[in-house]
Amino acid sequence: MFAIASFTGLDIADIDAATVAVQPEKFVFVEKISTTAIFSFRDGTEMVPIQLFSQSGGFGTTTLNQDDDPRAPSGVTGRAKPAFTMEKIAGGTPLLYQAADQAQKNALNAGMEYPFKFFDVEVLVAAGGDVVRSFKYKDCQITNYVLVSRADNEEGYTGKGFAVVDQYAFECSGYTPGNPAMDAMKKTEHAKTISSSDLKSTSSWEHGFYQK
């Protein structure tokens, strides 16, 4: 069981010190695995359940040349910038919308600074209430945003309905993956290990008790 609280109009679940958003009941996720995004802006934080999430960069490498980056020597290989895309039901994220609007307004002025230009994002992947994977992205920017309507062919008109969704693409300067299950295993192993400093000193033993 986990406690439910209110957060910017959304339900959230506090699970073992990790907070995840509760997905709408009508959405079906295989093995109850779903994703939550936490956006940390200069002016506040927003949490939102994500219906689609895909990593598109940051794990592999890329070769830069002077066409890609005038400051880079030709043929230099480095790690690709962390990037990801996501899709969510429209609404509930005024700060994220403000970031998208400012990014669009200043798209032709790469050097322009504005309040919502950079922000951090943490993505939590939870299975039935337990966070099984996490990704922390630092200094992110919105590189694309569109609002689209989704329907299952003509069945949108015959009962299944339509979904109006936000689609985002992000590029970041930092990326840190998290593995909560492994962290828990390490804590358990550490708790089982007794160091010599944990043993009582024999100098305080009573007469008749000696270390062999």
SSE order and pairing:
Layout: E1 3-7, E2 10-15, E3 18-21, E4 33-41, E5 44-50, E6 52-57, E7 61-64, E8 76-79, E9 83-89, H1 94-105, E10 119-127, E11 130-150, E12 163-171, E13 174-178, H2 180-192
Antiparallel strand pairs: 1-2, 2-3, 4-5, 4-10, 6-9, 7-8, 9-12, 10-11, 11-12, 11-13
Please tell me the CATH architecture by its name: Roll
Instruction: Work out the count of structural domains.
Output: 1
CATH class value: Mainly Beta
Overall geometry comes to globular
Largest sheet: 8 strands, antiparallel
Please report the distance between the alpha carbons of the first and last residues.
Answer: 51 Å
Q: How many strand units?
A: 13
Mean pLDDT: 78
Tell me the structural class.
mainly beta
Uncertain segments of ≥5 residues (pLDDT<50)? 1-17
| Portion in beta strands | over 45%
- Count, helices: 2
Using only CA atoms, what is the Rg? 24 Å
Q: Quote the CATH topology.
A: Pnp Oxidase, Chain A
- Proportion of helical residues: 10-25%
User: What is the H/E order?
Assistant: EEEEEEEEEHEEEEH
